[in-house]
Amino acid sequence: MKGFVQTPAETVDVMVDLLFRERPPGPDDTVLDPGCGTGEFIDGVIRWCDCRRLALPCITGVESDPRHLPVLLAKYRRLHAVRIEHTDFLTDRRTTYDFIVGNPPYVAITGLSESEKTRYRARYATARGRFDLYLLFFEQALRSLAPGGRLVFITPEKYLYVETAGALREILAHYHLEQIRLVCEDTFGELVTYPMITTLRNAPPGRTQIMRRDGSKITVHLPPGRDSWLPQVEGAAPQQAAVVLGDLCLRISCGVATGADRVFVRPAECLDPALRRFARPTIAGRELKLGTTDFSQPSVMLIPYDVDGRLLPLERLGALGSYLMRDDVRQRLLARTCVKRKVWYAFHETPVLREILRPKILCKDIGQTPYFWLDRSGHIVPRHSVYYLVPRDPAAIDVITDYLQSFSAHQWLVQNCQRASKGYLRLQSRVLRRLPLPDDVVQAATGGRPLVGPGSPAAASGISPYVMSFE
């Protein structure tokens, strides 16, 4: 039952209405549900036709899970128009269908075997990066859609904007996406997926109607290519900026991921004095409070690295090495997934302290609204629930922060950031880097100096990274 989630009947009926809008099926038409589960969409098609006293089209339900077969076979035994195929929809298929409807399984790459990953990557353009199974179902369904045919799928809205779904957006741009309908978060009960219904025809591209959760509607042209569609869905006007935030920053990154904060993050007040030379003040997203600039950190991070991100040998770690070698600590570190490819006491991601220990701007990775804090001292090591931005020129930190707190920047981030649970925004480095900057902000931040080459702000200001020593 991998990835199976039953679709509520009311949602099924909405989708079947969209499927047959302006073109009722005839008895010779073909309908496919590519992952039919226990037959919710087949039942929806039957209900739709019965209400209108229409003959059933030829309906095919494909299901790979043998546990669903007894239910399906018993339910449709007497309906000659319904055929159930016990097979994997993601294997090679040559049949095409006039209508395709369904709720493809949501299975992250972590739920797949290594052989499945290898097989799918060889067969599907959408099987790239940390892909989800529903992307592959979408691609295979498009291959199976007859010219002029219509497809209606309910999936997570994430395919609109996540980088992993870039290949799917590129494929979909060749079809006419008739409608994108963002539906209620609680459509599937406690399973929060931010669901979305996509309706498309196998026809040349055209304008797309966007139906938002607040009931508002707009019609847009979705751009070709792999870029996020979220700005268009949010109604943003196209923006072309000569300079973006990434141009003014040495680094925009997620904070340090140790993979074992219980080991490496310790209370500052009771820290063994022998460990202090390895300790740096640290902060987590939950400790960033709106309306406060108080950075009194109750915790420190023990860092077994030099400033350039080189892991120090145990014999140079002294008291820290002894602490890490304790049986309980060592066993906890050995249980991490990263030790398969790294030294057993290494962090999950390598911290380059020379770039982190500088004046920087901080923000939560997930928040109700975008908000930014200043670490002027540069002493703080942000944890993985915090993003940090290091300006190339420290003198520009206030100008950049002021713009990040502006209405214009806030509006752009709302239109471009992914959604987390309960409508919270998920800030990511790749989105922050693309934030367009007005000319006056660029002028104030750079003093009119060029952004690249020997005259760059960094070179002109003679920036020298902070240096720390473990000796």
Q: Helical percent range?
A: 25-40%
Radius of gyration over all CA atoms, rounded: 27 Å
- Number of separate helices: 17
Span between termini: 56 Å
Detail the poorly predicted runs. Answer: 453-471
List how many beta strands DSSP finds: 20
Strand content: 15-25%
Quick one: biggest sheet? Answer: 9 strands, mixed
Architecture blueprint of SSEs:
Blueprint: H1 9-19, E1 30-33, H2 40-51, E2 58-62, H3 69-76, E3 82-85, E4 97-102, H4 114-123, H5 133-143, E5 145-156, H6 166-172, E6 176-182, E7 195-201, E8 208-211, E9 217-220, H7 230-233, H8 245-248, E10 249-254, H9 261-264, E11 265-267, E12 279-283, E13 299-302, H10 319-325, H11 327-334, H12 353-356, E14 360-364, E15 366-367, E16 373-375, E17 381-382, E18 386-391, H13 397-404, H14 407-416, E19 418-419, E20 425-426, H15 429-433, H16 439-446, H17 457-461
Parallel strand pairs: 1-2, 1-4, 2-3, 4-5, 6-8, 12-17
Antiparallel strand pairs: 5-7, 6-7, 8-9, 10-18, 11-13, 12-13, 14-16, 14-18, 15-20, 19-20
Please tell me about this protein's structure:
With 471 residues, this protein is an alpha/beta fold. It is built from 17 helices and 20 strands. The strands form four sheets. A nine-stranded mixed sheet has the order 3-2-1-4-5-7-6-8-9. It has a four-stranded antiparallel sheet with strand order 10-18-14-16. The protein has a four-stranded mixed sheet with strand order 11-13-12-17. A hairpin with a 5-residue loop joins strand 19 and strand 20 (425-426). Helix 1 crosses helix 2. The longest helix has 12 residues, at 40-51. The protein is globular. The termini are far apart. Mean pLDDT is 88; it is low at 453-471.
